[in-house]
Amino acid sequence: MRFGQRWWAAGTMALVLSACGAGGGKQGPAGGMPTPEVAVITASASTVPSTRELVGRLYATRSADVRARVAGVLRKRVYVEGSDVKAGQSMFEIDPAPLRAALDVQQASLAAAQATAANDRVAAERARTIAAKGLISRTDLDNAQAAERSSAAAVKQAQANVELARINLGYANVTAPIDGRAGQQQVTEGALVGQGDATLLTTVQQIDPIYVYFQDAVGDLQSLPGAGGKAALELLGGDGAPSGAKGTLDYSDKAVDPATGAVAMRGIVPNPGHALLPGMFVRVRVSFGARQGVFRIPQAAILRDAGGAYVFTVGGDGVVAQKRVQLDGQQDSDWIVTDGLRNGDQVIVSGVQRVQPGGKAKTVPWQPRAAAQPASGG
Predict the structure, then answer these.
(1) Is residue 156 part of a domain?
(2) Which of 92, 130, 292, 317 has the smallest CB count inside 10 Å?
(3) Domain total for the chain?
(4) Residue 56 and residue 102 share a domain
(5) Residue 275 belongs to what domain range?
(6) Within 13 A of 139's CA, how many CA atoms are on the CB side?
């Protein structure tokens, strides 16, 4: 009996403990899990800039080759490679001695032509006087006047030759054709230049302002308001932050590249410090006016599956719903939603992993500074 009594007491105690455990837990509605708490924002349509971030390349606004325009021996370089030069500034000197001698020859030829013209003019005047008295034939008069005209033409030709020789002598001093930054010397002193072809001596590039060339898909451009007009642009640094270099879109091609389906565009950017150099690749943020009636939604609220992008919203009755949305790029850290939301929608930003369509959720306002912290509850 003693053994049976002990067995009965132990069974009774187990039943009592089981009953206490079953009734001691806190349950949610209908015995389910507690209602999760989520952080939400209230969707509100606004006007946001229409921007595109693209990759571009920098080019000089003007580029001019500096060439030897007359034949001669290069005597010296008179500019500093890589320095800024002004239009008309001396850059190279070609030996002027042969060119000066050529000018002297042409000036002598001009003097001879002028002397001949003076003699022929006197002879023609005499012939006309005598002819008026009938003392010489008409043929002699015509010959004298023809000689006068020929010598006058010879003087004009000699004058042109003198001017050409003077121009060639001026070319011995090779000057900068434009304002800009001078490049590396291509020919060393002592070389014969300009013999046959106009020898390239260096290049001058104007980089203030500077051009930035880039392309964008024609479909993306057609969806942007104001894409056909003037647009502001800004160059971004390697980390995506604004570099402070701002400009405007000054050219957009009227044809689409059939190979890429893109439209070529060009912006012009002031570059007073010459920090931007031709050939550099840059990121360009182009602003095409503003887009109205769109929603800025934090990145954490946007989810994706095979069907595209969607968000979770919480209705006035606390029921979670899934809504498909259309995205059109980003603005800072937010996605731009153009379709799928309405003003007043409570969009879940934090806690999306704890809800499902048709379920219940308790909402609290989302705080951007606390976005990295999980929502309390659940």
Answers:
(1) yes
(2) 317
(3) 3
(4) no
(5) 52-61+205-292
(6) 0
pLDDT tens for residues 29-67? 445 678 899 999 999 999 887 778 889 999 999 999 999
| C-alpha–C-alpha distance, residues 300 and 314, integer Å | 16
- Whole-number Å distance between alpha carbons of 238 and 363: 39
Q: For position 348, which CATH number holds? A: 2.40.420.20
- Domain membership flag for residue 100: yes
Omega of the bond leading into 209 within 30 degrees of 0 (cis): yes
Q: Which of 332, 321, 323 is nearest to 296 (CA)?
A: 332
Distances (CA, A) of 249 to 36, 232, 269, 282, 332: 50, 6, 9, 15, 22
Q: How far apart are CA 206 and CA 179, in angstroms?
A: 6
Closest CA to 50 of 229, 244, 215, 261: 229
pTM given for the model: 0.64
77's tokens:
């370089």
Place of tokens 């006016």: 289
